[in-house]
TrEMBL record:
GO terms for molecular function: amidophosphoribosyltransferase activity; metal ion binding. One of its GO terms (biological process) is purine nucleobase biosynthetic process. Keywords: Glutamine amidotransferase, Glycosyltransferase, Magnesium, Metal-binding, Purine biosynthesis, Transferase. It comes from Linderina pennispora. It catalyses: 5-phospho-beta-D-ribosylamine + L-glutamate + diphosphate = 5-phospho-alpha-D-ribose 1-diphosphate + L-glutamine + H2O. The active site is at C2. The keyword Magnesium applies. This is Amidophosphoribosyltransferase. Pathway: Purine metabolism; IMP biosynthesis via de novo pathway; N(1)-(5-phospho-D-ribosyl)glycinamide from 5-phospho-alpha-D-ribose 1-diphosphate: step 1/2.
Length: 508
């Protein structure tokens, strides 16, 4: 998952960079590998700073001061395609036509085809292995075809209409045309989120406009009239007007359900579903399942969350079961999310660095640990052991999401079935691998109901990691086999040398 934003200020003398930078701080949980901002100022000149690292590492005060201009695009990266190279940090830029900048959240499922097309037919040079650079060049190629000296909104709609036909997979995009304005659009299935809002300009004249992956950004920056960009919709904000059109209305709209389980911040609302409330309800439904399965044999003394994301579900679960809730694991606030870190060894070490079990909350007790999900089992395996080390008697483990048995191809880096601990195991086998006395997984229908109750207009979600049903029909067995070969941890470790490539973008 990545985080994206774009901002256009009504007053051309104000600087967008401060709030773009702030937006990245608020979206850091969506990508910890790279960060970048491109702004556009006087005479349509673009200013860029991007590279590998957390937001706090990439942007020094001096670098921020150099990013002048009243509009811009920003990005935090969690790679799902290409390599971890600095050169794949976003936003991406091409000079022709007009000067285009793009920030992409998602993953294209037909990138090989697009790469071939851009090379052989469109004759566009692609400098990295990133799928986002391909998306940018498809957009650029389609804009080029309009052949205009100066483009207008209709030309942009036409170019994105073409892109919708050509790019398959998941993409929420923020873009900027030099001197013209900013654009936000979402793939026709609405797999990845994007919100849009406005606020009165502090200059007293007109409105500022902003796009962001999550509503928390717009809330924090005092934007009002916040709404979701609709699947297949394009919103263009120029210096003079806001123009929007829903170019494609797909039969199946399928926002990624993993946003509600794990990715999004709890204080965000995505597609009219408040993430925190959905998580609370996941806890209620999971409690019902545990009660039904354990019946009179229920011997749990205490419910303990696995910080951070599971807290909401665990709290409500304990309430529903009438059991005490205790924060038995203390979290080191300076260690980021471990699931989105690259490489199993790094993830494993960081679980230990991040969470510390407090003996007083475990000693001689039967504990129920609650997490939002079990993916590779890295976290659960480590913390079950920690709980035992400090004297827990029995350790039960419950997951607010169902067992994850299939790869993700839409922007979460879970490409390899072999790495998923529940891929070919039943619940008791998973319990034994994790070292738990018993595991409980949420039922998929319950997870869907927890989210859908807040917006019944959404008939489907992308639940592919649980049921193997992919909303784009190009995800075949052959595709998944290839993905496994190219992006498993082992494959990525072999290509790790690429991480040193700076390419055209040198911030050092
Ligand atoms: O089974 P695994 O492969 O370990 O993946 C699942 C775990 O990873 C995530 O935590 P993470 O530390 O990334 O973030 P959090 O602090 O937001 O919970 C998630 O919340 C689970 O705890
Ligand atoms: N997680 C994402 O949204 C990743 C975006 C893009 N596929 C990349 O790897 O940079
Ligand atoms: Mg976690």
């Amino acid at each position: 998952m990545c985080g994206i934003s774009a901002l256009l200020l009504a007053d051309p003398h104000q600087a967008a960079v401060t709030e773009l930078h702030e937006s990245l701080g608020l979206l850091q949980h969506r990508g910890q590998d790279a960060a970048g901002i491109v702004t556009c100022g006087h005479k349509g000149r673009l200013y860029q700073c991007k590279g590998n690292g957390m937001v706090r590492d990439v942007f020094t005060p001096q670098r921020l001061m150099a990013l002048s201009g009243y509009m811009g695009v920003a990005h935090v990266r969690y790679p799902t395609a290409g390599t971890p190279a600095d050169s794949e940090a976003q936003p991406f830029y091409v000079n022709s036509p007009y000067g285009i900048v793009v920030g992409h959240n998602g993953n294209l499922t037909n990138h090989s085809e697009l790469r071939h097309y851009l090379d052989y037919d469109a004759h566009r040079h692609i400098n990295t292995d990133s799928d986002s650079e391909l998306l940018l060049n498809i957009f650029a190629n389609n804009l080029q075809r309009t052949g205009k000296f100066r483009i207008n909104e209709q030309d942009i709609f036409t170019a994105i209409q073409g892109l919708y036909k050509e790019c398959r997979g998941a993409y929420a995009v923020t873009a900027m045309l030099a001197g013209f304005g900013i654009i936000g659009f979402r793939d026709p299935h609405g797999i990845r989120p994007l919100v849009f809002g406005r606020r009165k300009s502090s200059s007293g004249k007109g409105y500022d406009y902003m796009f962001a992956s999550e509503s928390v950004v717009l809330d924090a920056l005092d934007f009002t009239d916040v709404e979701d960009v609709q699947p297949g919709e394009v919103i263009i904000v120029s210096k003079f007007a806001v123009t929007r059109r829903r170019l494609v209305v797909e039969e199946v709209i399928a926002p990624c359900i993993f946003e509600y389980v794990y990715f999004a911040r709890p204080d965000s609302t995505i597609d009219s579903i408040p993430v925190y409330n959905a998580r609370l309800d996941m806890g209620v439904k999971l409690a019902h399942k545990i009660r039904a399965e354990m019946g009179d044999t229920m011997d749990i003394d205490v419910v303990i969350p696995v910080p951070d994301t599971s807290r909401a579900a665990a709290l409500q679960l304990s309430h529903e079961l009438g059991l005490p809730y205790r924060e038995g694991f203390n979290k080191n606030r300076y260690v980021g999310r471990t699931f989105i870190m690259p490489g199993q060894e790094m993830r494993r070490k960081n679980v230990r660095r991040k969470l510390n079990a407090m003996a007083t909350e475990f000693k001689d007790l039967n504990v129920l640990l609650v997490d939002d999900s079990i993916v590779r089992g890295t976290t659960s395996q480590e913390i079950i052991q920690m709980a035992r080390d400090v004297g827990a008697r029995k350790v039960y483990f419950a997951s607010a999401a169902p067992a994850i048995r299939h790869p993700n191809v839409y922007g979460i880096d879970m490409p390899s079935m072999k790495e998923l601990v529940a891929a070919d195991r039943d619940d008791s086998e998973v319990a034994s691998v994790l070292g738990a006395d018993r595991v409980f997984f949420q039922d998929l229908d319950d997870l869907v109901a927890s989210c859908r109750q807040f917006n019944p207009r959404i008939k489907n979600f992308d639940t592919s990691v649980f049921d193997g049903k992919y909303v784009t029909n190009d995800v075949t067995k052959e595709y998944l086999d290839n993905l496994e070969q190219q992006r498993s941890d082992d494959a990525k470790a072999k290509g790790a040398a690429d991480a040193d490539v700076i390419g055209l973008y040198n911030i050092k």
